[in-house]
């Protein structure tokens, strides 16, 4: 279908995006196009934007993708919100060898963003980080009640998300993977960074 749309309009461009597993699949799309020598489609790509995407390959794959993205001038930005555990999966150790590539746009729980090579605390399951993550989970629960008053009624969080935030007191990375936080980060924190 994409091929038909691109062939029908020679000026058309496309953007690929996804959240979680969808983000992993989105970033694999240009890899598949590269392997099948679909150069004309790669050159029509405007960019790749993933949210809470897990790692998709090893160091060799990362180097291959960096080369392909530069070759075809494709922007790739990987958004990571605070303690989201999914971008830190699979666990970063010598056995699994999963790595990330591209520009990482990291947002803290105040939706302040910064451009980093890797998200902070990439070895998420470290016992040392339990206390800061729990304190942050408490803040996020409080923020869920306050944010409609500080940012406007369209930021109000639903009952289900507040229940997830309660679960976050036990496992901080669960509610941090919500689309709500990624949406808020891009709306409230966008002015912090200038994307190239």
TrEMBL record:
List all membrane-crossing ranges: 12-33
Key word Transmembrane helix present in the record? yes
User: What InterPro entries does UniProt report for this protein, alphabetically?
Assistant: AB_hydrolase_fold, Fungal_lipase-type, OBL-like
Write out the GO MF terms.
Answer: triacylglycerol lipase activity
Q: Which Gene3D superfamilies match?
A: alpha/beta hydrolase
Query: Is Ribonucleoprotein given among the entry's keywords?
Result: no
UniProt xrefs under Pfam families: Lipase_3 (PF01764)
Question: Which residue intervals define the domain Fungal lipase-type in the entry?
Answer: 5-92
Task: Report the SUPFAM superfamilies cross-referenced here.
Answer: alpha/beta-Hydrolases (SSF53474)
Q: Sorted alphabetically, which keywords does the UniProt record give?
A: Hydrolase, Membrane, Transmembrane, Transmembrane helix
Could you tell me which CDD domains the record lists for this protein?
Answer: Lipase_3 (cd00519)
**Domain of life per record:** Eukaryota
Q: Name one GO biological process term.
A: lipid metabolic process
Q: Which PANTHER family match?
A: ALPHA/BETA-HYDROLASES SUPERFAMILY PROTEIN (PTHR46086), ALPHA_BETA-HYDROLASES SUPERFAMILY PROTEIN (PTHR46086:SF17)
Q: What is this protein called?
A: Fungal lipase-type domain-containing protein
What is the originating organism of this protein?
Answer: Escallonia herrerae
